């Protein structure tokens, strides 16, 4: 609002360039990490092979970035610190296919306006290095200087003259973490470039120029974790996906270990994150994010990178396609992953005939659907269960695969004895150490995978209940469930109305011998209520999870030895057996090395 007390209108004046830069800096330079990001990106754009970052006090006091890239000609030094001056973009048309990380020509001018900066550069073909200083936007003169080939930028006392901005900085340790995170992201996405980060003279990160992706993951996520990451490659209608996913136990409640790159650029987009979580569902505990490196490549004209430099979100031309690819790529990749069956199978047992990654579906056990032959426990009112005929398994190639686990094999003939602890955990020796399984989680996963296989083949083996189970429900609930009757039928659950307030359950999947139909119904009702708006597929999936869980033994259920063995046998060849449907671990592996450490036999 104009000042009403003024007698004349205020005159309009053009802002001084320095002031414009300081205003722009408010958007580009938020904290020391933004400076680190911009300077390292510039070094990458300049074709550097090695980039060194030295920090003091979390970057608040001093940031130095050196590179061995192309350098800047002495005459161009002032331009480098001038806004909207760039060597990377010439015309609007170029915006469509930007190959460099920077293109706005704004970063250095912004940084220079809110810090004391020194730029030293020595390009090839120039006699000496030259330098230029800037003091909170006041440029000095270009001078001859001593220096190495390439470019060196020193940024000191960031925001010292803009106290309002300074106030928002956190402790040096926090700022340092942000700085390091940016270098890590750039190191992950730029194979061929070496990085080194030092804080107060101590090395925090070192990645050699020739380090491959695995070595980069090791540097960023730690060698132990990187060793256990699943590698995924996936190509789908113009979207290429390359990923490394950490094991479930490395998942965290925040997304700090999620690094998603779109055409080499690190992005953090809420919708992409959602797609990621969907893709790793069942592998990662509910409410957690995986340890993840995910690189997406799409044709540049299908993405808009010309969004705000600090807001790392993206705009896609065809979002659904891209998010769908992410979900599918991760799901498929994980379900084939080698680690899913790591440490599966007791010592001395025959090698699994199906291996993740092979093009054949996993064979199903031909054992009766109970835990073992002795399991005859039925649902109330069911009058007992009949064992369904053993399903035959057809490989993806179409040829039938014999299922030859003989029924009369004595339990544990592989030599794997199982110890039950607290009627919940199963402990057994496996190759290279010992394994502890959660009996409920394992059974839930077994149910899930077996049922899924049946559903995929369009034939869930059902167990008709001799006497239907009747459950009283409200009118609305009755209608709600009847409305989903088709979905339920596909899952092997047959329901129908029995009067106005009563639902009759006529059959349930034969595999789920532990199922108490009344309890399942409670769950299904709740899901139907909660997922009212969900797609039929999503609804079916939620219901499937619930059935797998309800049909499983519980923690605290005492199991006979043969039940235990039956369960382990069924769990030995699953496409995914590291987590239950809700992402809790099924098994914990303790290697001999872990044991040796625990007993101080090894340091
Ligand atoms: P942008 O990266 O968007 O072009 P910047 O303000 O970050 O804008 O940099 C301005 C210009 O300075 C760049 O276009 C580039 O020509 C030059 N420049 C900056 N840093 C370097 C570097 N480390 N090596 C070589 N040239 C650089
Ligand atoms: Mg730049």
Q: In terms of topology, how is this protein built?
A:
Elements: H1 17-28, H2 32-45, E1 50-56, E2 62-67, H3 77-80, H4 107-113, E3 116-122, E4 129-135, E5 138-139, E6 143-145, E7 150-156, H5 163-166, H6 172-189, E8 194-199, E9 202-207, H7 213-221, H8 223-227, E10 230-236, E11 239-245, E12 258-262, E13 265-267, H9 270-279, E14 292-297, E15 303-304, E16 315-316, H10 319-335, E17 393-394, E18 400-401, E19 418-421, E20 425-430, E21 433-438, H11 439-456, E22 462-472, H12 475-483, H13 485-490, E23 494-497, E24 502-509, H14 517-530, H15 536-550, H16 561-570, E25 587-591, H17 592-598
Parallel strand pairs: 1-8, 12-14
Antiparallel strand pairs: 1-2, 2-7, 3-4, 3-7, 4-5, 4-6, 8-9, 10-11, 11-14, 12-13, 15-16, 17-18, 19-20, 20-21, 21-25, 22-24, 23-24
Helix pairs in contact: 1-4, 2-6, 6-7, 9-10, 11-15, 11-16, 14-15
This protein binds adenosine-5'-diphosphate (ADP) and magnesium ion (MG).
Number of DSSP strands? Answer: 25
Number of helices: 17
> What amount of the residues lies in strands?
15-25%
In terms of quaternary structure, what is this? single chain
Mean pLDDT: 81
Task: Supply the CATH class of the largest domain.
Answer: Alpha Beta
Description:
This protein has 603 residues and is α+β, with helices and mostly antiparallel strands. It folds into four domains: 17-207, Heat Shock Protein 90, CATH 3.30.565; 214-339, Ribosomal Protein S5, domain 2 (2-Layer Sandwich), CATH 3.30.230; 363-442 and 555-598, formyl-coa transferase, domain 3 (2-Layer Sandwich), CATH 3.30.1540; 462-509 and 515-550, MutL, C-terminal domain, regulatory subdomain (Ribosomal Protein S8, Chain: A, domain 1). The chain starts with 16 loop residues before the first helix and ends in a 5-residue tail after the last helix. The structure holds adenosine-5'-diphosphate (ADP) and magnesium ion. Residues 38, 42-43, 45-46, 67, 69-72, 80, 86-88, 102-109, 151 line the site of adenosine-5'-diphosphate (ADP).
